[in-house]
Amino acid sequence: MYSKEGSLTSDAVIEYINDFSKTITLRTVIVLDNASIHSSILFKNNLIEWKNKGIDFFYLPTYSPHLNLIEHLWRFMKYEWIEFSAYNSWNNLVNYVENIVNNFGKLYTINFA
Fold it and tell me: What are the extents of the domains in the chain?
């Protein structure tokens, strides 16, 4: 897991995907929204290399937060799982968020039924 304070850049996302590409053993699809960091020339210059490493990308349609699963995760985090005391300090909030992300699928699940 990566955690970054401040703005996320194409450079950072490229670094994260390059690191991730070293761990995959099966063909993998990464779902992306249309954020500028995912559509920059710098990002697109890496697509062929990643494809050769077994990574394909699926871009969500523009303006489709209902299809973007991370939006559902953020909503559950914000309204269901993060306790009010998490907002006592920046470090406390970061720890709460990292705990949820690290335990998603174990302690924290979303039932779409």
Answer: 10-63, 68-103
Residue whose C-alpha is closest to residue 82's, from 112, 111, 104, 113: 104
Q: How far is it, in rounded angstroms, from Cα 5 to Cα 30? A: 23
**What whole-number distance in Å separates Cα of residue 88 and Cα of residue 50?**
41
pLDDT tens track for 22-60: 999 999 999 888 888 998 999 999 999 999 999 999 987
- The dihedral built from the CA positions of residue 28, 29, 31 and 36, taken in this order, carries a sign that is positive
Which residue is it, tokens 């998490």? 86
Exposed / middle / buried, residue 89 (Cβ in 10 Å: 0-12, 13-18, 19+): exposed
Residues 6+ apart with CB under 8 A from 18: 46
